[in-house]
Write a structure and sequence with these properties.
D-amino Acid Aminotransferase, Chain A, domain 2, globular, 9-stranded mixed sheet, alpha+beta, D-amino Acid Aminotransferase, Chain A, domain 1, 17 strands, 8-stranded antiparallel sheet, 9 helices
């Protein structure tokens, strides 16, 4: 059976199907109009076995995105999707992986109305550091994109809705074509919003700043995690609107996201941030994050959902 990055099976509408058989018809509404919602979740290998990071929070956001998109998931509740996620890891015998729950609209009528059925699937595959292993320790080079985040009232930034991500793709492609690893977007008012797929944290002196949700940012689950860790470690945090030039003169800058985890930024538009390498506050937060998700420190906030070794081995 073909294996995609370590994965053999996809959970699809309540059944496991082979990776190559997990397909949709060309008439699928989501394919034409972007009517899908999705999540990105990570499972980490720990000394106690595989552990899914903040599973319940990710599943809740999936359902919230579906509600925002007017495509409620009615055949399954959150508990059922949580269990299906655990089962998908176990069925694929994966110790460390990235998970992609996705729900999409299907209809026999290719119009803008979305009265059709909502389908749901869960994929998992092996995926290392999204912005590069070296980037985790040395930082990445980013650029401010020419593409702005849409204004509130033109899209719904709190929903992870498939069609909305064309904007993110434009920004990311532009950055990569110009030799950068990632893009940073401004909102329609010219204030700092977020990365193409990450939230941002900026350090000036002894205070850590992050743009508020009103700056057209996704309410990231890793963002919320880092906000909690900042408090745990005794640092000061302020949610505040940030102007573009603050990016150039701050002492440290880092990105957060399920895929990006906690990744330092060493330069913006070829302007070095601070010393041009990972700063000490970023490293402290990064070390605390990885120690918890990898089971090296106590899971004091109950963020991990463990998959038993017997389940993961397919016993």
């Amino acid at each position: 059976m073909p294996v995609q990055n370590g994965s053999e099976y996809v959970w699809m509408n309540g059944e496991f199907v082979a990776w190559d058989d997990a397909t949709v018809h060309v008439s699928t509404h989501a394919l034409h109009y972007g009517t899908s919602v999705f999540e990105g979740t990570r499972c980490y290998e720990t000394p106690q076995g595989p552990a899914i990071f903040r599973l319940e929070d990710h599943t809740r956001r999936l359902f919230n995105s579906a509600k925002i998109a007017r495509m409620p998931i009615t055949d399954y509740d959150e508990e059922g999707i949580n269990q299906a996620t655990i089962d998908t890891i176990a069925r694929n015998n994966m110790r460390s992986s990235y998970l992609r729950p996705i729900a999409w609209k299907d209809t026999n009528a290719l119009g803008l109305a979305t009265e059709g059925e909502t389908h749901i699937a869960i994929m998992t595959w092996e995926w290392g550091a999204y912005l590069g292993e070296e980037g985790l320790s040395k930082g990445i080079d980013a650029a401010v994109s020419s593409w702005r985040r849409p204004a509130h009232g033109t899209y719904t930034p709190l929903g992870k809705i498939g069609g909305q991500y064309v904007n993110n793709i434009y920004a990311s492609l532009e950055a990569k074509r110009n030799g950068y690893i990632e893009a940073i977007a401004l909102d329609v008012n010219g204030l700092v919003s977020e990365g193409a797929g990450e939230n941002l944290f900026c350090i000036m002196g002894d205070t850590i700043y992050t743009p508020p949700l009103s700056a057209s940012v996704l309410g990231g689950i890793t963002r919320a995690t880092v906000i909690q860790l900042i408090d745990d470690l005794g640092f000061k945090l302020q949610e505040s609107n940030l102007t573009r030039e603050i990016l150039y003169i701050c002492d440290e800058l880092f990105m957060t996201g399920t895929a990006a985890e906690v990744t330092p930024v060493r330069s913006i538009d070829r302007v070095a941030i601070g010393s041009g390498s990972r700063g000490p506050i970023t490293k402290a937060i990064q070390d605390e994050f990885f120690a918890i998700v990898k089971g090296e420190k106590e899971d004091r906030h109950n963020w991990l959902t463990h998959v038993s070794v017997s389940e993961a081995a397919g016993d």
